[in-house]
Amino acid sequence: MAWFDFKKRIGEIIKNKDKLIDLSRNEFKEKYSGSVLGVFWAIIAPVILAFSIKIVFTNIFGVKIDGFFIFIISGIFPWIFFSDGTIGALNAFYTKKSLLKQINLLPEFIPFSSVLSSFFNFLITLTIFMPLFVWVNHKNIMVFLLLPLYIFLFLTFILGMGGALAFFNMLSKDTYHFIISVITIWFWITPVFYSQGMVPFPWRWICLLNPLTYYIKCFQDVLFLGHWPGVTTTFIVMFISTLVFYLAIMLFIARGKELVKML
């Protein structure tokens, strides 16, 4: 019964996808309206962060990784997508609650549109830097055919995370402050600018229990190392993405009407 409800809801989402895309496009435009550099900030911010990390870890901590900047970039882009998409979705029902009253929308479209707005940023930065990744791995260029799969799985995961957290934030505003703190810590325990092999064994279990470890690894393997992440890692991200998205949709199916009444 639950699977039938999920399948039916997915059909409704696909049927109304134009509304979702319009919401996402409008939010993306509003994000950079009035800015001189506009969408270029989607590139500038992660590059500055990556350079800062490189300078600190190479000059102060003496980290020696060939192509360290490219390694960081391959992990920082997906991380920023996760961070921006999740935080943007958290407060979506508060910032856009009037939309549910004005337009006939599925409630999950509100946080989903915030995630997709951040996804547009992610695609822009990835597209601009793709020639660099291709140049680094020109001998293994066929591996880039796998990239759309991992992008789709990562997007599915963040849609599920953003949707569920937005719902819980409606139940308690403490959710927002808690998640902001968690994401700050989460960044440092995710191998974005270091590899799993650099983590001592007593602490490596933190990486292995961290779902983002596997997503970041997929992007770093394809973009920086130029090879397939492997069956195990691919299966893990497929499982996590499916589970998180499924649970989020079922949450909206079960309590979506209650949520609308709370707005």
Overview of this protein structure:
Helix 2 (17-32) crosses helix 7 (109-136) and helix 4 (68-90) packs antiparallel against helix 7 (109-136). The model has no long low-confidence stretch (mean pLDDT 87). The protein has one domain (2-262). The two termini are 29 Å apart. Helices cover 78% and strands 0% of the residues. It is mainly α.
Features:
263 residues
Short description:
The protein is mainly alpha-helical. It is 78% helix and 0% strand. It is globular.
Please report which band the strand proportion falls in: under 5%, 5-15%, 15-25%, 25-35%, 35-45% or over 45%.
under 5%
Number of helices: 12
Helix/strand structural class:
mainly alpha
Radius of gyration: 19 Å
Rounded mean pLDDT score: 87
Percent of residues in helices: over 70%
Report the end-to-end length measured between terminal Cα atoms.
29 Å
| Order of helical and strand elements | HHHHHHHHHHHH
User: Main beta sheet: strand number and arrangement?
Assistant: none
- List how many beta strands DSSP finds: 0
Shape: globular
Runs with pLDDT <50, length 5+? none
What is the domain total for the residues?
1
Topology (SSEs and partners):
Layout: H1 2-15, H2 17-32, H3 41-59, H4 68-90, H5 92-95, H6 97-102, H7 109-136, H8 147-171, H9 174-188, H10 201-209, H11 211-225, H12 231-262
Helix pairs in contact: 1-12, 2-7, 3-4, 4-7, 4-8, 4-9, 4-11, 7-8, 8-9, 8-12, 11-12
